[in-house]
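Retro notes, item 3 of 5
We never archived the inputs for the EGU complex last cycle. Fixing that now. Sequence and ligand:
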Amino acid sequence: MASDKTSNVRVAIVGGGLVGALNACFFAKRGCQVHVYEAREDIRTAKVVRGRSINLALSHRGRQALKAVGMEDKIVSKGIPMNARMIHSLRGKKTSIPYGKKGQYILSVDRANLNRELLTAAQQYPNTTLNFEHKLLDCQTEKGTMTFQRPDGNTLETTCDLIVGCDGAFSSVRKQFLRQPRFNYSHTYIPHGYKELTIPPKGNEFAMEPNFLHIWPRNTFMMIALPNLDKTFTCTLFMPFENFEKLTTGKEVLEFFEQYFPDSIPLLGVEALQRDFFQLPPQTLISVKCSPYHISSKYILMGDAAHAMVPFYGQGMNAGFEDCLVFDELMDKFHNDFGTCLPEFSRLRVPDDQAIVDLAMYNYVEMRAHVNSKWFIFRRHVDNFLHLLFPRTVVPLYTMVTFTRIRYHEVIKRWTWQTKVINLGLSVTGVATAVSGVYFLVKYMPDKLNAGLQSWKTFIYHFQKTP
Ligand code: FAD
Ligand code: EGU
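Structure as it came back at the time:
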């Protein structure tokens, strides 16, 4: 029912991760009665915080969403700007390539801190309650009820006007969607896994240049490092599981690093490397696509629950945050009418989220196929050069993804179009060069042309003769 009054609208948010906590702020700000249910304990009081990826790259889309709930400055002040990538070659040569002009940088943010700040911000609204150690077991989509496992062993059955699934890549809310007729779903595990390692500070300082995204591109293997406020770096090594399986001893790990990432060994430290490498098994990477994102006017999926992606664009959280912002914009536009907002969200957002899922997978395929440090540097220079020549027509793909809010599906359209124009330009230039070359020969060096033609004839003659 369309209404500007929201104070008696009950919204359940399943999952108090990054997207769930941000969404709680959005719905609370709107005046709804917000109930967050999170399976794990409160990370603000938990002794051990375990989970994947310690830090993340925050860019424009994510920042715009944070700004809408008044959280941008707070998060940005605790982020470390990365103005450029630093490419590490096999020989240890370092090359920096800026992301763009001065204001175009991404931020390295601490996942746990971001999650804590968002939960605290949500909790500051009197109309929000946070329920930790409440794991969603089941929801009955016909009745609109949810069943939670509580810490005391009992279950809680409850209902709400809107149920927002922000429960991550292995979403329990999404499981119920699978029973709906005409619900599309697919997922893919890539052959690569990842492992996180830490570069400690050197003396009291960062062991490498802090304001960079450090990259060691080695085709099949790749390592990335992002800076942390405590002057450490978190390195993420991406490698096929079959290669991880071959490394069973500290000696083999050291030899592997000597072969592929020699400059990182003194930074990581031999002992720490050999120990930490075996702390955890390599983590999996999953890509998820589904549609639609809603059921009736009651259930909606956002974040990884709707579109988990491989991390090769640094966009998973950013896209999830943009989901919240887009939904909020729809709530304004349609006066809080869930009956209109939910289908409209699916209509708008499915093509965009699927586009970034595809782009991330595309970049994974490209990186592992032929991206070493030389190729990475070369490609970025070609992009930058073309952008300099045609600043309005040719905008690098990563720029549109990272520094604008151009809809992701538009980004793919523009990029396909640009690539066609560039290729056309190249072939026109090629033909023009060939034509002018022949013209030049005919006009000024007819004898050379004749000799050239003669040698071709001879070549073809011999070629045909050989059995
Ligand atoms: P999650 O963060 O997974 O949160 C889901 C929450 O739901 C969790 O707290 C979980 O405990 C809870 N939950 C799960 N099941 C239930 C249940 N049944 N009941 C109740 N609660 C439940 N993104 C970027 O933008 N930039 C990056 O640089 C970047 N780097 C990445 C690097 C790696 C190695 C990986 C793996 C991902 C990276 N991402 C990055 C992606 C980013 O981590 C995710 O997109 C983001 O965490 C999604 O947030 P979410 O809230 O949707 O899901
Ligand atoms: C992977 C893991 C460099 C954090 C993609 C760039 C990433 C991040 C790139 C991780 C790369 C790759 C881009 C950003 C970002 C680059 C990007 C990837 C952050 C095309 C914590 N990627 N990532 N592209 O351009 O647009 O620098 O774990 F190596 S930030 Cl794979 Cl901009």
